[in-house]
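WARN  no MSA supplied for this record, continuing single-sequence
INFO  ligand: manganese (II) ion
INFO  echoing inputs
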Amino acid sequence: MIQPIIADNIVERLRALINGVKNIVITCHLSPDGDAIGSSLALCHVLHRLGKNAIVVTPDMIPKSLAFLPDMRDVVVYTKTELRARYMVEHAQLIFCLDFNDMHRIDKLGELIMLQQAPRVLIDHHLNPSNVFDLKISFPQLSSTCELLYRVFLQLHMLNLIDHYAAMCLLVGMMTDTGNFTYGCNNPDLYEIQASLMRRHIDRQWLYNMAMNTFSADSLRLQGYALSEKMQLFPDKHAALLTLTQDELKRFNYRKGDTEGLVNKPLSVPGIDWVVFFRQDPEYVKVSCRSRGDFSVNEICNNYFNGGGHVNAAGGEFYGTIEQAVDVFMRILEQVEYPENDNSQH
Ligand code: 5GP
Ligand code: MN
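INFO  complex generated
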């Protein structure tokens, strides 16, 4: 039996907010991943079944790899159709913010939302949520926003509104944020939730292949190249560094999403407990970090890379060259203190 974790008064406030409105906007973080878009679409489906005018507005484009999810064509992308996005936000009576903890994570769309009177409801699992939300449902100990959203539906007694499509979206978020249940995956509740979703006639094998196991040949070659030629290990600091320059990305016809999952790979080397990956994007160096155990990459991204996330998975942006980013990494490396005993979970 899954125990309730959200306080009753919060659940009742949420119920009252939903009951009192017709027009609802749902938004999620920049470069939406499976959890961000999965939770947004699942909530949208359930709100439609409640008779609401709900719509998902994303701050930027959704990766092609998630285009198979149902109703993706109804999503309004701010950077593509700004006027329509503006209209939706300005006419919203309630705004849900899913899978992010602060308005700067949604860029210009955040500025627009901050100008509105409509109450803002946060449903999220990132550390340190900011204080700009009228109702905060924040559980950083949970492994995905989709898991949290399932718990919200459970406590609202709305599980009957989760149909096949909503179940598919929720399962995608739970799978992608846990690496298909390989990290952040020790809570038995996860498997009860998964079983409940599976009863909505999910083809899990197909879903896994669509969401997590589809890569172009170029992308596989790029990842192979990165691991073979561009991975540095620092065993005494339990660290690994990956870098990819613009030229290298071009050489492999890089498309958004092609390096998905790459940053996790060095963690499979025994003794490596944290990884930093720098990718030279057109505007900045995109930083992506992973760790295991108590080593907090959230702090690293917070302190050095204008970012954040979770203890074991975080990201950020570095404004400078990739060489300068590597210099910063080397400084961090000098500063980290590692306990004598082996922290490795292998
Ligand atoms: P990824 O490495 O997969 O891009 O991101 C891992 C985690 O870090 C995700 O939970 C994501 O929300 C967070 N994250 C990624 N990039 C940024 C960023 O630029 N700023 C902040 N605050 N969080 C980020
Ligand atoms: Mn998430």
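The pocket of guanosine-5'-monophosphate (ligand 1) is lined by residues 29, 105, 288, 307-310, 313-317 (CB under 6 Å).
INFO  checksum written, moving to next record
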